[in-house]
Fold each of these.
Amino acid sequence: MQSPQGGPHTEPQLEEILGILGSNYAGAAGRSVFRYLIICGGAFAVFWVFLHERLEHRKIQEGQPPRKMNLKEARDSIYATLVIAVVTAVSLWLNELGHLQLYMDPMEYGAPWLVVSLVLLVFGFDTYFYWTHRLMHHVALYNWTHEKHHEYTDPSPLAAYSFTAWEALTYALFGPMVLLVLPVNFYVLLIAGSWFTLASTLVHLGYELAPSWWGKSRLTRWIGTSTMHNMHHEYIHYNFALYFTFWDRWMGTMHPDYDEVLEELTAQPLFQRAKAPSKAA
Ligand SMILES: [Zn+2]
Ligand SMILES: [Zn+2]
């Protein structure tokens, strides 16, 4: 870079780095908060405001927590998304410097790698989430890393990101750690990130939307549900996974009543027909 006089640039590099990080952060924070408000806020409006009476038979726990708890969930979540944006901003900068393997052209490593890398990210994150989440339940870590998330025993979708900074950093570091060793396309990473937002919204929905066969089918019984994670908030020592049920079933941490509770909740159709007016009336 040249100074205005045409000589070598002597300004400290720190300002330049802070400028890049600042602009990366503004973009990342804006996208994260927008995504949170649209997906988590939208799910709250649909299920906890407009449809809550029609779906009462699918509410996992009885009653509704006070609205001020929902506001607190939102405040915690926006704080955590702002922390996650720090990791995104630094990662984009490290990538520009060539330390991470994020690539923009989808065809650079061929189409099959797009699919394989997405599958690796989804299954890899579920494994990472299960074990780091279990670790945060250890008595030495729980109070300062994960207790906040358990302030909500009957969470709403607004609690999708109700994490302390430590917990938010733990999950956010998964992406850059993968990018240290594997090339991942930008759009694949975007899909994997949105997958997390959608899944976290769904598991904090408070209502079970799955059809009655979900827990019985040989395939879908391995995919997590709102009930599974809601029971984690209610009973705390069970159901640590997020996307799938593998780890909890394999490690014996699935709540013993999970399959039964899911079957009961999904026994009636999602939307029931309005009752015909009584002739005697
Ligand atoms: Zn939760
Ligand atoms: Zn937990």
Amino acid sequence: MSDDALRDLLDAVGADAVVTRPESIEAYRRDWTGDASAGMPRAVVRPRTAEQVQATMRWASAHGIPVVPRGAGSGLSGGSLAVEGGVTLSLDRMRAIDIDPDTRTAVVEPGALNAEVKAAAAAFGLWYPPDPSSFEICSIGGNVATNAGGLCCVKYGVTTDYVLGLDVVLADGTLVRLGGKRIKDVAGLPLLKLFVGSEGTLGVVTRATLRLIPRQEPAATLVATFTDVRSAAEAVVAIGARLRPSMLELMDRASINAVEDYRPMGLDRTVGALLLAQSDAAGGICSAEVQAMESVCRAAGASECFTTDDPQEGEQFARARRDAFPAIERLGSLLLEDVGVPIPLLPDLLGGIEAIATRHAVRIPVVAHAGDGNTHPIIVHDAADPDSVARARAAFDEVMALAISLGGTITGEHGVGRLKKGALPDQLGPHVMALTRRIKDALDPAGILNPGAIL
Ligand SMILES: Cc1cc2nc3c(=O)[nH]c(=O)nc-3n(C[C@H](O)[C@H](O)[C@H](O)COP(=O)(O)OP(=O)(O)OC[C@H]3O[C@@H](n4cnc5c(N)ncnc54)[C@H](O)[C@@H]3O)c2cc1C
């Protein structure tokens, strides 16, 4: 980027919105993957208004400069890694939240954290369900751009199920307003949903209108332990076929031990796997639903079952599950998978992952949003040892190929980003890849929006 172009940017958005000092830029280069291939952007723009986002995109269009939209940088697929010499557009200063209890909606700027939206809704007795484990550190803009999932999605769905409206700034700086506070609206092509999950490659979200629902009932909790992962997965399949848990998570022995080392809470380190299930069924029947899940787990061979009606005790187990990523991070460098399959094939997926770990002599602890068939095998390796890196990469590719062979997906919620795009054609095939390219070219003909992500 020339000095003249940089001066134009400062004129367009104002000097106080532009960061150019390399020491300050450093914090905006990577996402949670810490990927070393991140480029060094020439500038970071931190707008306070949608007009500043529009000005940035008009300027980038005129100069042909790549722009990487960025939320809170908690992404796990390299979606917001900086591009060398480009601009990172950080939405972290746009954080307004406006709750409308009459329409049960929240109008939210993209930099607001998921947890802040939940808290604002709770003040009106309302609830914003999507709950990535990272809910305290990820932004709504990032959630919309990745169509984030989480722990309660097994019952309540994912981010897109709560997006009623979006303001999006396109590559040329045009602001389009899609949807709104209307529950039903089928006017025109369903463009709103095109932007949910588009990972910053089609436009920049500057405002989201989110659907809220009445506060969740207090949940009852079941923790069931199993001698092996396969029988835990078979219990998941049986629960999914008959019951409607509000949470159904799996942790294998390696992840249980990592969490116990990180923040001990007395989980049994010797079991093969545990299931964490909750029911928030209304009308006081959540305990009955938890008991039904316990029966299913016992029939599937659970070695021990523990149940509680105390929501706080249940939340402690959920916290242990949410701790899994930071806990496993302490074991070494990580390659994070996000593969998913139709629920009945979960035992085959988990069995196959164990075989891949053995074949490549790598450790692959697994945590899973098991009730969705969505798993996070986490490949632990030594980044300083080329042989360990090569084995980890081979295992990473094989896990994705396994998911595809089972009719599954390479990513259930984290997005393709930069780390998984090599496997995308294998899942989508040439026709869907070509269609994806045509849509990208129509909306961003110069290819300046998040180049290198997805495609
Ligand atoms: C400990 C931990 C646990 C996690 N658990 C979960 C989980 O349970 N479920 C889940 O789905 N994810 C999970 N994640 C992943 C991550 O938190 C989500 O992908 C989240 O949605 C990313 O939000 P962010 O604000 O950090 O976005 P970033 O990482 O900054 O960006 C992610 C993507 O969104 C794009 N983007 C960001 N803001 C905008 C915008 N305003 N307009 C257009 N594009 C934008 C970026 O370009 C990038 O492609 C976890 C991460 C961590 C670290």
